[in-house]
C-alpha cells in the first residue's frame, strides 16, 4: 500500500517539505563522501608510493647483491689464478687446460683468453678477442688493469656483428718481481645467455615495471629484454645520476613521456649502475578502485535517502495536497478546476468548499472579460504599427505582436517589465521615462520623429513614435498609449550612403577625405592641449609583386588582411585610413613622448612582416613608414601628410621594412633626386653615358678571360654621377629599360670591334635590370642586338641579380632557357645576398655564380666568409 501511494504521489518531490528534508540529509551524505574522497586521494597515493619505493629499493638491492657475487667470483678467480704456476708457463696445452677449468667452474663467464703483456693471445675459449678489441683498445685495457687485481670493461660490441656484445673481466698475473706476465680475459656474452636473467624473472615489482644495469658509459649491460642490451640510455635522468657515481631515488619522465618512480644504485667495484623503474600511475590504481566503490555507496545512500524523504513528505502534506494542486491549476489560468471528494467535517474541508465557490464566481467573470479582450486584442495585434501601453512608473501594461517582434521577444515577455530590462543605455532609459511622465502629467500628446529602440539582442531600431496619455473617468492619467512606426531601413540607407562617401569600399577604412577631416580635428585639439599629433604614412613594399603575380583579387584580400592587423595593433583612439592603392595613413593623437611613436612604428613593421596565409598561398610583405609630427614638421594637414610621405620615401630608399622621422634635409634629398631624374631623361640623346670595361682574369693562367661592361654618367653640369645614385633612380622611373638596351648594344658593338681588329675573342658581361626582364621581350631585344652588331652569341654573357631571379622564378626560368638556346651565357650576380634556395637554383641553367663582394672582402679575415665562399665555389663546380 505504501509503495502504491508513493507511485501515485510523485508530485511530493516538488514540495518544500520534501526538498528541505532531502536537502539536509543529502548535504550530510555528500559532506561525508567528499571527506572520505579527499582523504583517500591524499593519503592512499602516498602510501602506495612509499610501498613501491620500498619495492624498487629491494629490487635494486637484490640486483646489487648478485652484482657483488659476480665481483666475489672474479676476486676468487684472481686469487686462485695467481697461485697457479702453470699459468706462468709457455706450454699452450697447459694454459688451455687451465683456462677451460676457470670457465667451466665459473657460474658467470662463458669464454675467455689468456694473453701476454703485449696483448697477444696465447690460448682462447669461445671468444676471439680481436673481434672486440683493436690495437688501441688492447693498449687501453692494459693501462686500465695495470696495478689492479681485476678490471671489468664496459659493454664491448662485436666489430663483425654489432648485435653481439660482451663484458670482459681482465685479471693481470704478476711474477715475484711484481712484473705483469700474463692477462686472463674472461667474457660474458650478454646476448647469448644474458646477465642476471633469472633474477629479472624473479623480481615482482608490478606490471610495466622493470630493472636494468648500465656500465660507466650508460650502455645497457643487463635488461629483461635481451635486444635492449648494448643500447645507450645515458639521457635517462637516473642514469645521468649514476654516471656521476650517485645512488638514490627520483621521479622522472621516460622516453615514452610516461612518469616513473626510479631507484638507482652505483656499484663502485664494477663501476656499474643498477636502476629499477615503476610507472607512477600504478600508485593510483588502488585509489581508483576505492573511488569506484565509493560511487556505488553514494548511489545506494541517495536512493535510500530519496525513499525515506518521500515517505516522510507524503505523511506530512497529504491533507493539503488536493488544495495545493487546485491552486496550481488556477495559477496557470485553469478556472474550471474544482476539488472533488471534499470531507467537510474538518476545517480543511470547509476551506476547500469555499475555494470551489470562489472558482465558480471567477470563471463566470473571466469568461465575460475574455470575450471583450479578444475583440480588442485582434484589433491591436493585427496592426502593422507597434502599439504598447506604459504606466507612470515605466512598466509595460500592454504590447502587440509588432512591438514584440521589434524587441525580439513575445508580448507576454514584455508585459510587467520596464524599458530598462531591454535597453542597456540607462541614460536613454531615464530620458524616455521623464518624457513619459511629462505626457502623463500634462495630459498632452507628443510626436517623436526619430528615436532609437534597442531589442533583446542589443540591435538598434529607429522609430517614429506618437505618445498619447490615457485619461481615466475621473480626469486623471496614470498611463500612456504609444504608436510606433519602424523607419530603420530608411535610416540605414541614409547612413550607408554617408559611409560609402567617406570610407574605402574594400577595407571599410576611412578614405582620404575622412582622414584629412579627422587630422584637422586632432590638430585643433592638440593646439588647445599643447600635445603632439603623429602622422604615419605607410606603403607596402612588395604589394606590386603580389598584384602582378597572383592577380588583383589576391591583392585585395592582402589589403584586407593588412587592415585587420593594423586594427589589432593600434589603439581605438588612433585613426587608420586607406590613403590610396597600397598606402595607409595613421593618426596617433595626444602624444607626449616621441619615443612612443617610434615604438608603435616598430611594432607595426614587425607585425605586418609576419606571413599572410590567403587561399592556400603564403605571402610576406614588409612595409615602409614615414612619420611627421605636429607642430614640429608642419602646421596644417597638407604639410604633415606631404612630409610623412617624404619620410616614407626615404625609408624605402634606405632598405625598406623600416621607418624614418621627417627632417628638413629630406626635402633637399628629394629635390636632388628629382633633378637627377630630369637630367637623365635627356642623357642618352646628349651622349652623356659611357661604358667602361672591367677585365676578368683567370686566377690559374693569369690570362684575360672576359670583361664586364660598367655604365658611367658624365652629366654636363654635375660632372660624374655615382652609379649608386642614378641606377636606383633609373630603375624606379623605368628609364633603366632604354638605357639597358643602349648598354647591351654598345657592349656588343665594342666586343665585335675588338674581334675585327684581330684581338682574341672574349666574353663581354652585361647586367640586366629586373624591369628589362619584366617589361620587355628580352629575348627579342638580345636577338636584334646580336643580329645588328654581328656578335656571335657565345661571346655575350648576361648577368641577373639573385634577387631578381627569386622574385620572378617562373618567368626567369623560361627566359634563361630561351637565351641559352641561342647561345648566350647566363651569370647570377651578387650570389649569397638574397633568399634563393638550392631547390630552385638547380633548375636554373646558369653558367656563372658571382659571389657577392661582402663575402670576398672578408675572405682573409672572417672564417665564416671563407667557409661560405668555399662552399659556393664547390657547389658551382658540381
TrEMBL record:
It is a multi-pass membrane protein. One of its GO terms (cellular component) is plasma membrane. Residues 372-443 form the PAS domain. Residues 314-367 form the HAMP domain. It is found in: Cell membrane. One of its GO terms (biological process) is phosphorelay signal transduction system. Residues 78-105 form a coiled coil. InterPro entries: Biofilm_reg_signaling, dCache_1, EAL_dom, EAL_sf, GGDEF_dom, HAMP_dom, Nucleotide_cyclase, PAS. SUPFAM superfamilies: EAL domain-like, HAMP domain-like, Nucleotide cyclase, PYP-like sensor domain (PAS domain), Sensory domain-like. Residues 531-664 form the GGDEF domain. Pfam families: dCache_1, EAL, GGDEF, HAMP, PAS_4. The keyword Transmembrane applies. The chain crosses the membrane at residues 21-44. The keyword RNA-binding does not apply. Keywords: ATP-binding, Cell membrane, Coiled coil, Kinase, Membrane, Nucleotide-binding, Phosphoprotein, Transferase, Transmembrane, Transmembrane helix, Two-component regulatory system. Residues 673-878 form the EAL domain. GO terms for molecular function: ATP binding; kinase activity. NCBIfam families: GGDEF, sensory_box. This is EAL domain-containing protein. It comes from Metabacillus litoralis.
Amino acid at each position: 500500500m505504501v509503495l502504491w501511494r508513493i507511485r501515485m504521489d510523485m508530485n511530493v518531490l516538488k514540495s518544500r517539505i520534501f526538498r528541505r528534508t532531502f536537502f539536509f540529509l543529502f548535504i550530510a551524505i555528500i559532506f561525508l563522501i567528499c571527506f572520505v574522497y579527499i582523504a583517500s586521494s591524499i593519503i592512499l597515493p602516498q602510501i602506495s608510493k612509499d610501498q613501491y619505493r620500498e619495492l624498487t629499493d629491494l629490487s635494486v638491492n637484490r640486483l646489487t647483491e648478485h652484482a657483488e657475487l659476480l665481483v666475489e667470483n672474479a676476486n676468487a678467480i684472481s686469487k686462485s689464478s695467481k697461485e697457479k704456476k702453470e699459468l706462468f708457463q709457455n706450454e699452450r696445452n697447459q694454459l688451455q687446460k687451465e683456462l677451460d677449468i676457470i670457465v667451466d667452474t665459473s657460474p658467470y663467464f662463458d669464454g675467455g683468453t689468456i694473453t701476454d703483456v703485449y696483448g697477444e693471445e696465447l690460448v682462447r675459449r669461445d671468444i676471439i678477442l680481436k673481434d672486440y678489441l683493436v690495437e688501441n683498445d688492447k693498449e687501453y685495457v692494459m693501462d686500465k688493469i695495470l696495478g689492479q687485481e681485476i678490471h671489468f670493461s664496459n659493454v664491448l660490441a662485436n666489430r663483425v656483428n654489432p648485435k653481439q656484445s660482451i663484458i670482459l673481466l681482465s685479471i693481470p698475473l704478476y711474477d715475484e718481481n711484481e712484473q705483469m706476465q700474463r692477462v686472463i680475459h674472461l667474457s660474458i656474452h650478454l646476448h647469448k645467455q644474458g646477465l642476471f636473467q633469472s633474477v629479472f624473472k624473479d623480481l615482482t615489482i608490478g606490471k610495466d615495471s622493470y630493472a636494468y644495469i648500465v656500465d660507466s658509459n650508460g650502455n645497457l649491460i643487463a635488461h629483461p629484454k635481451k635486444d635492449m642490451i648494448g643500447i645507450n640510455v645515458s639521457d635517462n635522468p637516473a642514469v645521468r645520476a649514476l654516471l656521476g657515481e650517485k645512488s638514490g631515488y627520483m621521479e622522472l619522465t621516460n622516453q615514452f613521456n610516461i612518469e616513473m618512480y626510479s631507484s638507482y644504485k652505483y656499484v663502485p667495484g664494477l663501476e656499474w649502475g643498477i636502476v629499477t623503474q615503476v610507472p607512477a600511475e600504478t600508485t593510483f590504481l588502488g585509489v581508483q578502485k576505492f573511488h569506484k566503490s565509493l560511487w556505488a555507496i553514494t548511489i545506494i545512500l541517495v536512493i535510500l535517502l530519496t525513499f525515506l524523504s518521500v515517505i516522510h513528505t507524503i505523511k506530512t502534506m497529504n491533507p493539503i495536497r488536493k488544495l495545493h494542486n487546485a491552486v496550481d491549476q488556477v495559477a496557470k489560468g485553469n478556472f474550471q478546476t474544482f476539488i472533488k471528494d471534499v470531507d467537510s467535517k474538518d476545517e480543511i474541508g470547509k476551506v476547500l468548499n469555499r475555494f470551489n465557490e470562489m472558482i465558480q464566481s471567477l470563471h463566470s467573470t473571466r469568461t465575460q472579460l475574455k470575450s471583450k479582450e479578444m475583440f480588442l486584442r485582434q484589433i491591436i495585434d493585427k496592426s502593422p504599427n507597434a502599439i504598447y501601453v506604459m504606466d507612470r512608473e515605466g512598466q509595460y501594461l500592454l504590447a502587440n505582436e509588432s512591438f514584440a517582434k521589434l524587441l525580439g521577444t513575445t508580448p507576454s515577455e514584455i508585459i510587467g517589465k520596464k524599458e530598462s530590462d531591454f535597453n542597456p543605455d540607462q541614460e536613454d532609459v531615464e530620458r524616455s521615462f521623464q518624457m513619459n511622465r511629462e505626457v502623463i502629467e500634462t495630459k498632452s500628446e507628443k510626436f517623436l520623429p526619430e528615436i532609437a529602440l534597442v531589442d533583446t539582442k542589443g540591435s538598434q531600431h529607429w522609430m517614429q513614435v506618437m505618445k498619447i496619455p490615457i485619461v481615466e473617468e475621473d480626469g486623471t492619467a496614470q498611463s500612456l498609449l504609444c504608436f510606433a512606426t519602424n523607419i530603420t531601413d530608411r535610416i540605414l540607407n541614409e547612413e550607408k550612403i554617408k559611409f560609402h562617401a567617406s570610407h574605402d569600399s574594400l577595407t571599410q577604412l576611412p578614405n582620404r577625405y575622412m582622414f584629412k577631416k579627422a587630422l584637422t580635428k586632432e590638430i585643433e585639439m592638440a593646439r588647445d592641449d599643447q600635445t603632439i599629433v603623429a602622422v604615419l604614412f605607410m606603403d607596402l613594399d612588395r604589394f606590386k609583386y603580389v598584384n602582378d603575380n597572383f592577380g588583383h583579387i589576391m591583392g585585395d584580400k592582402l589589403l584586407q588582411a593588412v587592415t585587420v592587423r593594423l586594427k589589432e595593433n593600434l589603439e581605438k583612439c588612433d585613426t587608420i585610413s586607406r590613403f590610396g592603392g597600397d598606402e595607409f595613413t595613421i593618426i596617433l593623437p595626444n602624444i607626449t613622448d616621441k619615443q612612443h611613436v617610434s615604438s608603435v612604428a616598430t611594432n607595426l613593421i614587425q607585425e605586418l612582416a609576419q606571413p599572410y596565409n590567403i587561399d592556400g598561398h603564403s605571402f610576406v610583405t614588409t612595409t615602409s613608414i614615414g612619420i611627421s609630427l605636429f607642430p614640429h614638421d608642419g602646421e596644417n594637414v597638407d604639410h604633415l601628410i606631404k612630409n610623412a610621405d617624404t619620410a616614407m620615401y626615404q625609408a624605402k630608399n634606405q632598405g625598406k621594412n623600416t621607418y624614418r622621422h621627417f627632417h628638413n634635409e629630406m626635402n633637399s634629398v628629394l629635390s636632388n633626386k628629382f633633378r637627377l631624374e630630369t637630367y637623365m631623361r635627356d642623357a642618352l640623346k646628349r651622349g652623356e653615358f659611357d661604358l667602361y670595361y672591367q677585365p676578368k682574369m683567370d686566377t690559374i693562367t693569369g690570362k684575360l678571360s672576359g670583361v664586364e661592361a660598367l655604365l658611367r654618367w658624365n652629366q654636363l653640369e654635375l660632372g660624374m654621377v655615382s652609379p649608386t645614385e642614378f641606377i636606383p633612380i633609373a630603375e624606379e622611373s623605368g628609364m633603366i629599360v632604354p638605357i639597358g638596351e643602349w648598354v647591351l648594344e654598345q657592349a656588343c658593338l665594342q666586343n665585335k670591334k675588338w674581334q675585327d681588329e684581330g684581338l682574341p675573342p672574349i666574353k663581354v658581361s652585361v647586367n640586366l635590370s629586373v624591369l628589362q626582364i619584366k617589361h620587355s621581350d628580352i629575348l627579342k631585344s638580345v636577338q636584334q642586338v646580336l643580329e645588328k652588331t654581328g656578335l656571335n652569341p657565345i661571346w655575350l654573357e648576361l648577368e641577373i641579380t639573385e634577387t631578381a631571379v627569386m622574385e620572378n622564378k617562373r618567368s626567369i626560368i623560361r627566359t634563361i632557357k630561351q637565351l641559352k638556346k641561342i647561345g648566350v651565357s647566363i651569370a647570377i650576380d651578387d650570389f649569397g645576398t638574397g633568399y634563393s634556395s638550392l631547390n630552385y637554383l638547380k633548375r636554373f641553367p646558369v653558367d656563372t655564380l658571382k659571389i657577392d663582394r661582402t663575402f670576398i672582402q672578408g675572405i682573409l679575415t672572417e672564417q665564416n666568409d671563407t667557409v661560405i665562399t668555399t662552399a659556393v665555389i664547390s657547389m658551382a663546380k658540381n
